[in-house]
Amino acid sequence: MNHFKFQSAVFIFLCWVFVYPAIAQQQTFPQKEDYLQLLERAAKENKPMFLVVHQRDDQFIPFRGSVSKKAKDILSTQFVSGIVQVDRDEFDHPLQRAFYLNKPMYLVTDKDGIPILRIDKAVDGGDELERLIDSANTLAKAETLGKLIAEYRKGIRQQSLLNKILRYNQTFDQYTDQQLLSDYIAQLTIEQLNNFETVVFLLSCGPVYSRSLTKPTF
Predict the structure, then answer these.
(1) pTM for this structure?
(2) 3-state SS, residue 86
(3) Taking a C-beta distance cutoff of 8 angstroms, is the pair 75, 123 a contact?
(4) What span, in angstroms and rounded, lies between the C-alpha atoms of 98 and 109?
(5) Residue 171 contacts by C-beta under 8 Å, 6 or more apart in sequence?
(6) Tens digit of pLDDT for each residue in 147-175?
(7) C-alpha to C-alpha distance for 197 and 129, rounded to whole angstroms
(8) Dihedral of CA 127/133/135/141: which sign?
(9) Helix and strand counts by DSSP (H, E) for the chain
């Protein structure tokens, strides 16, 4: 009898070990997705993206607590959303090339993948997540990095425009586009280059990457 109970306990334990991860994966919201597929969907559906980006293992928990119904409905209908896992040695990954990824982040972007809002601290899936979504929607209606880059791609090279883009890069912890930085430096006067604040700002713009913002993909 005791032997039967022991076998039953072992069987239940093994079922839990193998079945629970699959159930947990199904219940996780949003689901783990490929970044390029999400980007393609966003462009096709003309929707912004809500991404949870991390470099941890498959048991990564995206939010503190469960996601509220309101937040889930908004993210399911108004956004293309997903969890994106980036391996630390996956240096060619688009997100790895564009952002500092030293910790998990919540990233809201436009349909082209250009950031609107980045949050690096963990949030709960209830009121805090809903406020985050509201903030992203409000920011999207104002001046955004995507709108500025669209002007840059049209050939506009005003120093004020370039300065704003560079400052947005710092806000989102992005690597700076080398061509854009060169365009900005080319417009500085000798007096500006000798200014301490200008030097500090230029140093804070590094490191850079060589892919040009004039190309349609980000």
Answers:
(1) 0.81
(2) coil
(3) no
(4) 13
(5) 118
(6) 999 999 999 999 999 999 999 999 999 99
(7) 37
(8) negative
(9) 10, 6
